[in-house]
Amino acid sequence: MDPSLPVCVVNCVAYGADGTRRDITLDEISDVLARDDGSFVWVGLYEPADELLDKLQEEFGLHDLAIEDAQHAHQRPKIEAYGDSLFVIAHTAQAAAGGKIEFGETHAFLGKRYLVTVRHGASASYAPVRAQVEREPELLALGPSYGLYAVLDSIVDNYLPIVDAFHEELVELEKDLFADEFRRETIMALYDLKRELTRLRLAVAPLQDILAQLTRVHGNLVADEVRPYFRDVLDHALRVNESTDTMREMLTAAMGMNLSLVTINQGEIVKKLAGWAALLAAPTLITSWYGMNFANMPELHTRHGYFVLIGVVAVVCGVLYRYLRKVRWL
């Protein structure tokens, strides 16, 4: 890459009709586009300044609304057609420390002879993607739509290890759900996992419509030979979306199961407390009668009355204890 290019310009390359690569400057873009030789330009940017986007708008003739969206992140995934160009926004995802996901955005401008990719936030460089497609010049010769396929394929492929990691975490959390003791940390981990899955789904679900359009329409910008490749990416996106939906349902069921287990456990504790309370109520009731200081109390003036009372209390408590054990209240 030309060292004179701004730091935010990751690459500025012209590809010939045979897929050969040639580094160019930003000022040479218009010269390359002026030649009708089947070549196209691929410019990669990372969080560019507004002035640079204005220059690229002048070079490629990009629409004002698309440039306005590209200047600001936090856009929803979408595809929009502006005359002879497409503007595509996709959300990228990168695994971060602590099992969290950092999301970024990739904005792509696709024309008949150019591809401009603008990255914002957490997003891996597309240098390996370019290197891979450059090893297949016969495919790169299909035009900029193949470059867009490679970018979107990389974005979807980055979802797959995240989904696999979420599945492994869910399996571990399911083991904790059936532990003998309640753990607040398990519920918090389940909630965090469901939140991350929901955020991932918000990134993947709209991408399906984008890929479906690239598969079926926009024939003037997407080569027919490239459509099967977009269809393959769409299949991967569908698989990721189905996996996230399945895990979200499993998480909902797991959280419901945990709540049920906690409720059942609390019910068992209440039953045991009620059983012991009933067991203690019998001697409390009997002994309270003899604490009323009445003169005519049963066995009050007999020699063995005290021991008989103890025996009666013991028998009542024993019978009640056996019954409560039988019905599993103790």
Structural notes for this entry:
The chain is of the alpha+beta class and 330 residues long. It folds into 2 domains: 9-261, Beta Polymerase, domain 2; 262-326, Methane Monooxygenase Hydroxylase, Chain G, domain 1, CATH 1.20.58. Helix content is 57%, strand content 15%. It is built from 9 helices and 7 strands. It has helices at 29-34, 50-60, 64-71, 127-134, 137-140, 144-177, 184-216, 227-289, 305-326; strands spanning 9-15, 21-23, 40-46, 78-82, 85-95, 101-110, 114-121. The protein has a 7-stranded mixed sheet. A hairpin with a 3-residue loop joins strand 6 and strand 7 (114-121). Helix 2 (50-60) runs antiparallel to helix 3 (64-71), helix 6 (144-177) packs parallel to helix 8 (227-289) and helix 8 packs antiparallel against helix 9. It is rod-shaped. The mean pLDDT is 83.
From the N-terminal CA to the C-terminal CA, the straight-line distance is 78 Å
Average pLDDT metric:
83
Low-confidence stretches: none
Which fold does the CATH topology of the largest domain refer to?
Beta Polymerase, domain 2
List the helices and strands in order.
Answer: EEHEHHEEEEHHHHHH
Number of strands: 7
Biggest sheet statistics: 7 strands, mixed
Q: What is the oligomer described by this structure?
A: single chain
Our count of helices gives: 9
What best-fitting shape do the alpha-carbon axes yield? rod-shaped
Secondary structure: helix percent: 55-70%
- The strand line-up of the biggest sheet is 2-1-3-7-6-5-4
Global Rg: 36 Å
Domain module tally: 2
Beta-sheet strand percentage?
15-25%
Structural class by SSE content: alpha+beta
